[in-house]
Each structure stands twice: as C-alpha cells, then as structure tokens.
Amino acid sequence: MQPDPDPIDLSSLDPRTDRVRWDAAIARVTAGGLALRQLRRAVARRGIAAVMLAAAACIALWLAPPRHEPMPPTVSSSAVIDWALRAVTPADVLALGVPDAQ
Amino acid sequence: LIVLAGHEPSTAELVIRTGRGDALACDQLVRRHLRAAYAIALAVLGRPADAEDTAQDAFVTALERLDDCREPARFSGWLRQIVRNHALHALERRKVREPDGRASEIGNYVSEGDAMLRSRILERLATLSMIQREIILLHDLDGWTHAELATALGITEVNCRQHLFIARRTLRAELSPLVLSEMDHAARP
After folding, report:
1. Which residues are CB-neighbours of B170 under 8 A, at least 6 positions away?
2. Chain A: residue nearest B59 by CA?
3. pLDDT above 80 (res A91)
4. What is the pTM of this model?
5. Are A15 and B164 a contacting pair at CB < 8 A?
6. Between B30, B122, B147, which is nearest A30 by CB?
7. For residue A77, what are the CA distances in angstroms to A70, A72, A83, A86?
8. C-alpha–C-alpha distance, residues B65 and B57, integer Å
9. Using one digit for the tens of pLDDT, what is the confidence trace for B155-166?
10. Shortest Cα distance from A11 to chain B (angstroms)?
11. B6's torsion region: left (phi>0), alpha (psi -120 to 50) or beta?
C-alpha cells in the first residue's frame, strides 16, 4: 500500500523527541509490568496452594471415622409421661411454698 | 537469540515471550507500542503530559493482564481498548477536578518555539472528533496503516481514509500560514 501523501508533521507532539525521558518511561513501564506479573503469579500460586490445602483438609475430615462421644444425659420419654400423668396443678406448685409465687 | 540473528520478532512473538517473563521481549514490546498508546490517550485527553501518564499506567496494566490477551497477534487492538478505557476514566476524573476544563498544558521538555507550535496544534486537534484525532495521531505520528487502523477501530478502510482526509483538511485550514511554515521548516533536515 502506498503511504498517504502529505501527512501533517506532528513531531512536536512526539514524546520520543526527548530520548532520555522516553527511555526512562519505557524502563518504568517494563519494570512495573514485569513486577506486577510476578506478583500476580505468586498470588495465584499461593491461592492454588491454599485451595488445595483446604480441599485436602475437607477430604481428610470427610474420610475420618466418626468420633463416638458420650451422649449427654437425656430425660427418658417414660419419665416425661409419668410427670404429665401426675396431674400437677398450679395449686400444687404454690403449695410447695415458693415465696412471692403469686 | 532471535534478536541476535537479526530477525525482527513479530508482536505476537513478543507477547508470548513477555508472558513467559522475558524482560528483553517485554522491553521491545513496550518500545514498539508505547507511542501508539500515547497517541490513543492523547486523542482522548488532549494533553500530552496526561496522555503520557495514562499511556504508561495503561501499559503496565496491560502487561499485568497479558494472559487475558487471547490473540497475541491482535495485541495492538487489545492494548488500544485498555488505553482508551484508562483515558476515559482519567477524563472523568479531570472533569470532576477541573469543572471549567481550561487548565493550560505546555510540555516541559520542548523549546519555547516548539511549545507554541505544539499548543496551536493541540488547540486545532481539539476541534476534531475523537475518532478523527485518534486516526490522525496514530497514522501521522505513529505510522499505522489504514488496514491496522480499520481493524483496531472496527471501521472500514474507506471510512478510515475519509476520517483522515477530513482531519488533515481541518488542521490545515485552521492552522495559520505562520504555523504551517514553522512546521515545514521544522520538517526539513
């Protein structure tokens, strides 16, 4: 393709005219970009490691045999039925002599 | 080794090597595309110093997210989107910071004569549409072809040529003969 004839000279806007400044800008961008890439990769690596550790812990817990802890003492159903059948009335409770019961 | 053999690596090669952490390739990639990033940012922001800062920030972001560039051969277009988004955000922040929007900007690394010429050109560029500014800056400053511009901007080559023609005509018409003679004089070796 033929270059377009008669381009407008925009060299006064060209940042490359100041060579030192331009090279410094390139160095800054390169260093910053590479450093951030390394950081991103390190975070990703550690993230993957953390996820794998968590997954391993979950699997270990899931596969572990259930622990048989002694159950807390419970009231048997027959005791509850006995108590209910005794027909305790509020008067019986008051008769126990609790002060200020009323 | 590729460089030593005299072979100019393609942008796609540089992107892939940079992705693997090759600092030399990264330097070449930045060297090849930073001015285009600046031109895109300048088309949005209209101020060279702001455009330089934004282009550099956007390029660092692009390098950080290089793994997201799924088609290394189309790095230019991908970078353009990132720079453009950064520049638009910078423009929004500037509108909040400077509601009148009339802060003057003359570069701090040009001579007095260049600074005057530069400010005149910037004033005239501001009268163009954003796409015209982007096309004329990328074409006449960074040497993009119409095919590259059309691909990056998602327009036809004919459309691109029309925009460039109008942009040049507007600039030429509005720049005074004095400025044009200065530009011609500066262009001479």
Report:
1. B124, B127, B128, B132
2. A29
3. no
4. 0.73
5. no
6. B30
7. 19, 15, 10, 15
8. 12
9. 999 999 999 999
10. 7
11. left
Buried b (16+ CB within 10 A) or exposed e, B102-138: eeeeebeebeeebebbbbbbbebbeebeebbbbbbbb
The residue whose two tokens read 């638009």 is: B88
Helix (H) or strand (E) holding B99: none
The verdict on a CB contact (< 8 Å) between A37 and B64 is: yes
Q: Least CA distance to B108: which residue of chain A?
A: A18
SS3 per-residue string spanning chain A? CCCCCCCCCCHHHCHHHCHHHHHHHHHHHHHHHHHHHHHHHHHHHHHHHHHHHHHHHHHHHHHCCCCCCCCCCCCCHHHHHHHHHCCCCHHHHHHCCCCCCC
Q: How many helices (H) and strands (E) does chain B have?
A: 9, 0
ipTM: 0.78
Judged by CB atoms closer than 8 Å, whether chains meet at A30 and B164 is answered as: no
Indicate the angle between helix axes B48-64 and B75-97, nearest 10 degrees: 130
pLDDT digits (tens, 9 = 90+) for B130-160: 999 999 999 999 999 999 999 999 999 999 9
Q: What is the DSSP string of B114-140?
A: HHHHHHHHHHHHTTS-HHHHHHHHHHH
Q: Which residue of A has its CA nearest to B26?
A: A30
